[in-house]
Amino acid sequence: MKLFLHLCIFFSILFISLTSSYSCTLNDKNALLQIKKSLNNPPLLSSWNPQTDCCTSWTGVSCTNRHVTELTISSGKISGQIPAQIGDLPYLRTLDFSYLTHLTGNIPRTITKLQNLEILRLKETNLSGPIPGYISELKSVTFLDLSFNQFTGPIPGSLSQMPKLEAIQINDNKLTGSIPNSFGSFVGNVPNLYLFNNKLSGNIPESLSKYDFNAVDLSGNEFTGDGSMLFGRNKTTIRVNISRNKFNFELSKIKFARTIVSLDLSENHIYGKFPRRELTKLRLQHFNVSHNFLCGPIPQGGVLQTFEPSVYSHNICLCGAPLKPC
Ligand SMILES: *[C@@H]1O[C@H](CO)[C@@H](O)[C@H](O)[C@H]1NC(C)=O
Ligand SMILES: *[C@@H]1O[C@H](CO)[C@@H](O)[C@H](O)[C@H]1NC(C)=O
Ligand SMILES: *[C@@H]1O[C@H](CO)[C@@H](O)[C@H](O)[C@H]1NC(C)=O
Ligand SMILES: *[C@@H]1O[C@H](CO)[C@@H](O)[C@H](O)[C@H]1NC(C)=O
């Protein structure tokens, strides 16, 4: 009898811990079931069964203290739009919908209710329309990845109002217009900018010169004019790629940070001579100035002679190793 009582207590405790400490709150569970319904009950979410615990057995769902804090749905056949009920998961810290080529429409406004969101990754889906400015109401987001979608229109200037942003990854869309002037006044961190492979154009705001970007990739756009504000002796920039644009500035005027390891200036309208010593002091691992309007001797020294001749090719009259002697 005593053993039976002990067993009863043991199983009650087990039952309580299984049902309460691990299962998600009713609010979160209902929101997820609504999301599943809005997406027309896709097979990918068949594990989202109302009879089971959404924290431990539902695909892509993770919890902290019974609240859903992470939702990751990736690589599958999900058709339709991001359900508005996504805003009903108030403890969400990571929202990751990636490689869902049949996910269409835009980002619903209800997303702004997710004030704990730190990572917003909607990568390689088929979202379209303009990137909504209200994304900037997500004040906890550190990492914004909307790459490989069909977004059109300008970059919303309000992104500069996100105080914790560390990276803006909006490459491989169909964005137009220039870099917003507001990017000259980020309220918080200066985020890494990955804007490559869009249809962005115009001049880069001069005000960016005061920023110390870690990594900037503007390649594969239609930017024009000066690019010197991206550089600067006192910066700690590591990677800059402005390849495949129409930048038009004098190379010898640029002061490079000693920290740069990757520098791709190829396929632009950059002119003038090489700075005499500037580049020989860098520990470059990737370097490319091909397809520009450069002329004169390639400085000898540092790592500049370790690159293959093609990184200097298609200029006006560059000479010296690894090209032909001057
Ligand atoms: C993506 O959306 C476009 C229209 O915006 C459509 O033409 C295309 O077929 C969609 N791609 C997929 C894989 O669903
Ligand atoms: C720079 O961007 C171009 C085009 O997007 C890419 O092909 C190239 O590999 C990049 N360069 C480096 C050094 O990453
Ligand atoms: C770079 O830093 C040095 C020493 O800290 C300072 O003297 C110089 O004015 C700075 N240059 C620029 C362009 O800010
Ligand atoms: C340098 O850039 C040119 C033009 O973008 C490209 O064709 C070439 O492959 C690049 N070279 C290297 C070594 O990356």
TrEMBL record:
Keyword Signal annotated: yes
Matches recorded under Gene3D superfamilies: Ribonuclease Inhibitor
Superkingdom: Eukaryota
Cleavable signal peptide: 1-21
Keyword Heme tagged: no
Compartment(s) where it occurs, according to its Swiss-Prot or TrEMBL record: Cell envelope
Family the entry assigns: Belongs to the polygalacturonase-inhibiting protein family.
Protein name as catalogued: Leucine-rich repeat-containing N-terminal plant-type domain-containing protein
Chief location: other
Keywords: Leucine-rich repeat, Repeat, Signal
Domain Leucine-rich repeat-containing N-terminal plant-type: 27-64
A UniProt-annotated Pfam family: LRRNT_2
InterPro entries per UniProt: Leu-rich_rpt (IPR001611), LRR_dom_sf (IPR032675), LRR_N_plant-typ (IPR013210), PGIP (IPR051848)
